[in-house]
Amino acid sequence: MRPVYFEDEALKLIDQTLLPTREVIRSYTDYRDVCDAIVTMVVRGAPAIGVTAGYAVALAAREFAGRPDFAERMQQACDDLRGTRPTAVNLFWAVDRQEACLKAALTAGQDAYVALRAEADAICAEDIAMCRAMGRAGAALLHLGDTVLTHCNAGALATADYGTALGVIRAACEAGKQISVYADETRPLLQGARLTAYELHKDGIPVTLITDNMAGWMMRQGKIDAVIVGADRITRNGDVANKIGTYSVSVLARENGIPFYVAAPTSTIDFEMMTGDDIVIEEREPNEVGHFAGVQTAPEGIRFENSAFDVTPHQNVSAIITEKGVLYPPYIQHIPKLKNEG
Ligand SMILES: CSC[C@@H](O)[C@@H](O)C(=O)COP(=O)(O)O
């Protein structure tokens, strides 16, 4: 199990030393550094962002303890965290949860830091448990020898451990189903190439890296049996925000009669939002498109657009795999019921 630590002086996230393309961040003592890590995507992937933000609120409480302006400072820290990335709802879910925890601790006269730290540990442990449960539920959808297409990284590196989409693949492999994977490279930051391919290869799960624009041709040749992606926000009607390019993959899957599955914990469901039309899509630094590994790849003076996510309409989603089980259309009948289910 890949640990997420929170020790005396530091928030230790993941062992990134094996990831040459990512900066090695082993410890944080300041919640502002955690904000930077989320903005710059040292920490990325919806569930991992949520878990990390939970620890960051605890860091803020430790820093501001005993100050007369404690309440204002904590409010600012929570607002700073919420301002880091707009699309992944897990971030807001975790910060809201920590705010409720803080309020309860103060009302009960408990130490805020101790309470927030315990709640962050609980969020982290729940994320791991949810990924395992999703894996078990989703593995039943895959068959012996299936080849699965993934998009972006929805693996252990995007969660506290195990992964959402990759959790399903891992669970199916653990059940002896001999799954192999085509991983989209996922331009512009190549999470599929750097992270998904890295994780699966390390686990001994056969993985083949393809460029984003090969997906349709792979499907057309009968090389893909199922698509599984993660999600950054799912609305009440089953619309799904995920890494840019996911929508195109869903259209291609539909055209080719291939099931398109989404694996996400219920912390990724926005129970307040009716449809994907209302999801705020993050627009990132345009230069990410015009550069590759620090090298400029486009002529001077060119304009870029760099939407980080898109929305796949629920009509293209064959099933949504959650820790509470597999949902099928019509999602609007099933998703709202999950809100208060234990
Ligand atoms: C379990 S991760 C699900 C999603 O967060 C993942 O597919 C994704 O789109 C990540 O985007 P990123 O921009 O790398 O944070």
Automatic annotation (TrEMBL):
Protein name (record): Methylthioribose-1-phosphate isomerase
Residue numbers binding substrate: 44-46, 85, 191, 242-243
Site positions for Transition state stabilizer: 152
One BP term from GO: L-methionine salvage from methylthioadenosine
Family membership noted in the UniProt record: Belongs to the EIF-2B alpha/beta/delta subunits family. MtnA subfamily.
Originating organism: Pseudoramibacter alactolyticus ATCC 23263
Pfam families on file: IF-2B (PF01008)
Protein task: Catalyzes the interconversion of methylthioribose-1-phosphate (MTR-1-P) into methylthioribulose-1-phosphate (MTRu-1-P).
Database matches in PANTHER family: METHYLTHIORIBOSE-1-PHOSPHATE ISOMERASE
